[in-house]
């Protein structure tokens, strides 16, 4: 049986304001205990999102010797037969820790549609508000007991900005303003997490008390979705402001050597933040690396991006492993599609969903595997093609969730975690 | 036909020196009646409880001007005893400078949504400035679309007031331009057809690339003559030439001396094609601006199955026909909508059952919507007694603070807006809101605090008028008054600042209801 527990809004507001002056509230531990018996937490997911559609023919499935291959060379990994790009040397060293799916074959070649399908597992259908993978995983986890949002997006802009039919509680919390118009980018801090210097604790408490009281008199009740989301966001923001929660986002608490290992790119630091968050019970963290839409000058750009990816991803694998967290954390590395095997007139590659690769590691995934095979020119998947629904089924199964589990959607129709057509990739489980 | 006839009568009436305001009021009211008859039919009375004056003014101001009304505007409107005060308020707003700026943002967001992403943010300003100028001059809607589709780099005006942003936002790539032009101007979604044929979809992959071919520059053959351009479907050997989407016919003429000629023909076809996609799309998007939900959803899928069914499709067809007959008059359509009973329905009926009302046609009325970033920023300033920012002539942009705030509070569709934690943090702890919560930066609070002739109740009530556009209720007044008394020690200014902060962080200020 699944018990739905909601923190009463007004209590949360009061509790949060009380927490600021050091009271511990009585309901939180009780709530945590209650949820623990009702739910078993699934494993965590870290999605390394290669935004724009990575040229996987230049990363994970090279075609040396063919015209489509481009200038990159392959290097060996500890796994016989698993060879990857020369620009991923750290990952090559860790080849037995991850597996490559070389048989991805999808249908959407438009960025926004492909992103939607890749992150929700479903093709857009009428009015159904499909939630993303992160929201689904967060929803299965033990949300109410923690102050940190259980689904965090780092460094870009999430494809589905809300929580879909699961509601705003499961919406991604976005760290870093890199995906915003007019913002400078690389800072991975949470803006406005504390009160401004000229506002005292007394000021804050008075204001919160007044806000709480005026809410009680409001004629606009949380029956309206939009109103509910505003009140809920306010309450969750207050929870996040508690010092214990806020410190999760403080990378300054990490040793300099650790920060260096991940690389000083915002992607690398985002991977480090992902580890800190997963350690604290966050269920899903997306870390975006943008710039893969290489219609021109593909090889210079992919080389540079590969180096950023290599350092962050490899450091994450090393770090999670040494902390004993890798077995409970799934890492997924992919973008919305691959890129054309043929090279265009601007040394670029265009959108290509028909044959591409992605990488899985950790949790219930067997490492050191290569799934599927593409033709010598890279244009055709020669083994059984892997569809998005197959990948989703694999992901859910590997973190201990039944892909066939249903949630009620906004159109009053139950929707399964993964499209029921999907067949998990047995070789990886 | 009816409207042409009315237009004719009205123009005669104007020649006869009938009062001007009477002439412009009449036609929109006919349109309002058409909307209400279609929606409510015979038995819709119980869904029609209208919003009270304060709620209506706030809703209207947010939708037409992009900001809440000022204290003065609220007081004046509430005190006005005239029967036609709602019509007069609409007219005042349409005549104001804020209206074209607000609508320019609306059309830009619909047509060039890429400009809301960091990659293409730079194109927003130029495109909106161009739109402001057109809307100020009351350019017809069909001419606006034509100007975008047929824009030519050679004809750019020196000040850069042109729609080139549409091309930049699409990287000037034929495939992107085809997908964006059909979505923005026809409400047709061709994204899937770009890569594959879908068994149930109306549009094929070939049709997508035939549309894209209109945006390819015409090549010259060996003799220097211009040829019909072709474009190859990627990774295939199929070459496509331009064909009009719904008609599958070729552009006319064997030669194309002007590089823009093909796109001129494309625009002509868009205006003439028999299914009225252009007008239906315009009406559907404008409707969504005022009601949240579009008449037909998804908003960019007018060729999909939901667009073919039910009374909703009929309503959209009717309004589209009226729009065409009016000479693509945007302001007439806007007036017709905001003066309809349908638009004026209360979201929260006074004593009755809570909305939103859902009519037989399945159209939702009285929907509570979130605010766009622009609305929120400009409303915060208005509430604080500050003018909305307008730096350059004809522009509502140019302020870095505003741009950053707007980006942070971006919502795709206001009726489905979900406030995020980051946004809540910015509202509670951000410098902008906190500055406005002190008398040093808040002119309204400063003037209330320095008005000794106001009673404590009047001071509190003025803050409610400024922030929420209505008087405080008895309960609210008692609660706030008690708080002020118990915190007397911190002083009036601090208490007023607290009240402002609490009100702008509450759901009523943050929604359009």
List its salient traits.
heterodimer, A: 429 residues, two-stranded antiparallel sheet, 14 strands, 14% strand, disordered N terminus, B: two-stranded antiparallel sheet, two-stranded antiparallel ribbon, elongated, DUF1501 (chain A)
Structure, briefly:
Chain A: It comes from Roseiconus nitratireducens. With 429 residues, chain A is an alpha/beta fold.
Descriptive account of the structure:
The complex is a heterodimer of chains A (429) and B (513). Chain A is α/β, with parallel strands linked by helices. Chain A has a single domain, classed as Alkaline Phosphatase, subunit A (3-Layer(aba) Sandwich), CATH 3.40.720. Chain A is built from 12 helices and 14 strands. Chain A has helices spanning 9-20, 27-38, 89-93, 111-120, 133-140, 201-216, 225-240, 243-246, 256-262, 266-279, 298-322, 388-398, and strands at residues 44-51, 74-76, 83-85, 98-104, 151-154, 173-175, 284-290, 329-335, 338-339, 351-352, 356-362, 370-371, 406-408, 414-416. An 8-stranded mixed β-sheet of chain A has the order 6-5-7-1-8-11-4-12, with helices on both faces. A two-stranded antiparallel ribbon of chain A has the order 2-3. A two-stranded antiparallel sheet of chain A has the order 9-10. In chain A, helix 1 (9-20) runs antiparallel to helix 6 (201-216) and helix 1 packs parallel to helix 7 (225-240). The two termini of chain A are 27 Å apart. Mean pLDDT of chain A is 88; it is low at 1-11, 14-39 and 179-186. Chain B has 513 residues and is an all-alpha fold. Among the domains of chain B are: 24-50 and 274-367, no CATH class; 173-259, no CATH class; 370-512, no CATH class. Chain B has 24 helices and 6 strands. In chain B, the strands form 3 sheets. In chain B, strands 1-2 form a two-stranded antiparallel sheet. A two-stranded antiparallel sheet of chain B has the order 3-4. Chain B is elongated and about 90 Å long. Chains A and B meet through helix 6, helix 7 and strand 10 of A and strand 5, helix 18, helix 19, helix 23 and helix 24 of B.
């Amino acid at each position: 049986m699944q018990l739905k527990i909601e923190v009463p809004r007004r209590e949360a507001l009061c509790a949060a304001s009380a927490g600021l002056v050091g009271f511990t509230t009585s309901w939180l531990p009780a709530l945590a205990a209650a949820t623990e018996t009702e739910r078993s937490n699934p494993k965590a997911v870290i999605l390394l999102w290669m935004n724009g559609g990575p040229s996987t023919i230049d990363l994970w499935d090279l075609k040396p010797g063919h015209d489509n291959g481009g200038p990159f060379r392959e290097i060996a990994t500890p796994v016989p037969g698993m060879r990857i790009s020369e620009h991923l040397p750290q990952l090559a060293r860790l080849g037995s820790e991850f597996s490559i799916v070389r048989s991805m074959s999808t249908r959407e070649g438009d960025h926004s549609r492909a992103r939607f399908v890749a992150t929700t597992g479903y093709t857009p259908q009428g009015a159904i508000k499909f939630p993303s993978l992160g929201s689904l995983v967060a929803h299965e986890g033990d949300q109410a007991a923690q102050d940190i949002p259980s689904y965090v997006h780092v460094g870009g802009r999430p494809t589905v900005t809300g929580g879909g039919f699961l509601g705003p509680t499961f919406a991604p919390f976005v760290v870093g303003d890199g995906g915003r118009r007019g913002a400078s980018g690389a800072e991975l801090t949470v803006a406005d997490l504390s009160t401004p210097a000229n506002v005292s604790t007394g000021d804050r408490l008075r204001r919160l008390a007044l806000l709480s009281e005026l809410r009680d008199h409001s004629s606009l009740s949380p029956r309206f979705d939009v109103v509910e989301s505003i009140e809920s966001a306010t309450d969750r923001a207050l929870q996040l402001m508690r010092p214990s929660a806020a410190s999760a986002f403080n990378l300054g608490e990490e040793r300099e050597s650790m920060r260096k290992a991940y690389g000083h790119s915002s992607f690398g630091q985002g991977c480090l933040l992902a580890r800190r968050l997963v350690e604290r019970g966050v269920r899903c963290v997306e870390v975006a690396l943008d710039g893969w839409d290489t219609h021109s000058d593909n090889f210079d750009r992919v080389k540079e991006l590969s180096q950023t990816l290599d350092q962050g991803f490899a450091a994450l694998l090393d770090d999670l492993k040494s902390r004993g967290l890798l077995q409970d954390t799934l890492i997924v590395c992919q973008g919305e599609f691959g890129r054309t095997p043929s090279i265009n007139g601007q040394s670029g590659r265009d959108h290509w969903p028909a044959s591409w690769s992605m990488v899985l590691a950790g949790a219930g995934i067997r490492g050191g595997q290569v799934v599927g095979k593409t033709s010598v020119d890279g244009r055709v998947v020669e083994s059984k093609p892997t569809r998005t629904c197959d990948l989703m089924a694999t992901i859910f199964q590997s973190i201990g969730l039944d892909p066939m589990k249903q949630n009620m959607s906004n159109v009053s129709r139950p929707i399964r975690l993964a499209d029921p057509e999907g067949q998990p990739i047995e070789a990886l489980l | 036909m009816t409207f042409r006839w009315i237009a004719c009568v009205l123009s005669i009436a104007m020649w006869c020196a009938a009062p001007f305001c009477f002439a412009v009021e009449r036609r929109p009211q006919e349109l309002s009646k058409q909307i209400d008859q279609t929606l409510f039919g015979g038995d819709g009375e119980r869904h029609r409880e209208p919003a009270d004056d304060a709620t209506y003014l706030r809703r209207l101001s947010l939708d037409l001007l992009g900001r809440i009304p000022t204290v003065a505007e609220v007081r004046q409107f509430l005190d006005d005893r005239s029967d036609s005060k709602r019509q007069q308020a609409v007219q005042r707003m349409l005549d104001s400078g804020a209206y074209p700026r607000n609508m320019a943002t609306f059309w830009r967001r619909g047509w060039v949504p890429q400009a809301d992403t960091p990659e293409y943010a730079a194109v927003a300003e130029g495109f909106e400035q161009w739109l402001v100028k057109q809307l100020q001059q009351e350019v017809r809607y069909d001419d606006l679309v034509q100007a975008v589709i047929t824009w030519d780099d050679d004809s750019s005006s020196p000040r850069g007031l042109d729609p080139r942003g549409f091309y930049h936002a699409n990287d000037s790539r034929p495939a992107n331009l085809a997908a964006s032009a059909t979505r923005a101007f026809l409400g047709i979604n061709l994204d899937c057809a770009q890569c594959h044929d879908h068994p149930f979809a109306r549009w094929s992959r070939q049709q997508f690339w035939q549309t894209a071919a209109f945006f390819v520059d015409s090549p010259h053959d060996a003799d220097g003559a211009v040829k019909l351009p072709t474009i190859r479907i990627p990774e295939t050997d199929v070459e496509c030439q331009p064909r009009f989407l719904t008609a599958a016919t070729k552009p006319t003429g064997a030669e194309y001396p002007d590089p823009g000629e093909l796109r001129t023909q494309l625009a002509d076809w868009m205006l003439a094609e028999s299914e009225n996609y252009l007008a239906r799309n315009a009406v559907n998007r404008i409707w969504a601006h005022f009601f949240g939900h579009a008449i037909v959803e998804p908003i960019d899928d007018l060729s999909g199955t939901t667009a073919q069914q039910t009374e909703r499709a009929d309503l959209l067809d009717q309004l589209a026909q009226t729009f065409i007959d009016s000479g693509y008059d945007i302001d007439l359509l806007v007036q017709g909508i905001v003066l309809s009973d349908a638009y004026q329905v209360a979201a929260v009926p006074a004593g009755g059952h809570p909305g939103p009302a859902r009519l037989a046609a399945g159209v939702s009325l009285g929907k509570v919507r979130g605010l766009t970033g622009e609305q929120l920023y400009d409303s915060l300033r208005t509430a604080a007694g500050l003018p909305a920012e307008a730096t350059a002539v004809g522009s509502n942009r140019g302020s870095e603070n505003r741009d950053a705030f707007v980006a942070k509070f971006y919502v795709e569709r206001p009726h489905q807006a979900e406030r995020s934690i980051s946004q809540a943090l910015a509202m509670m702890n951000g410098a902008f809101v906190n500055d406005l919560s002190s008398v040093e930066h808040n002119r309204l609070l400063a003037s209330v605090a320095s008005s000794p002739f106001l009673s404590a109740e009047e001071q509190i009530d003025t803050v409610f008028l400024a922030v929420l556009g209505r008087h405080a209720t008895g309960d609210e007044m008692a609660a706030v008054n008690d708080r002020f008394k118990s915190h007397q020690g911190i002083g009036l200014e601090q208490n007023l600042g607290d009240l402002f902060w609490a009100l702008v962080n509450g759901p009523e200020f943050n929604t359009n209801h």
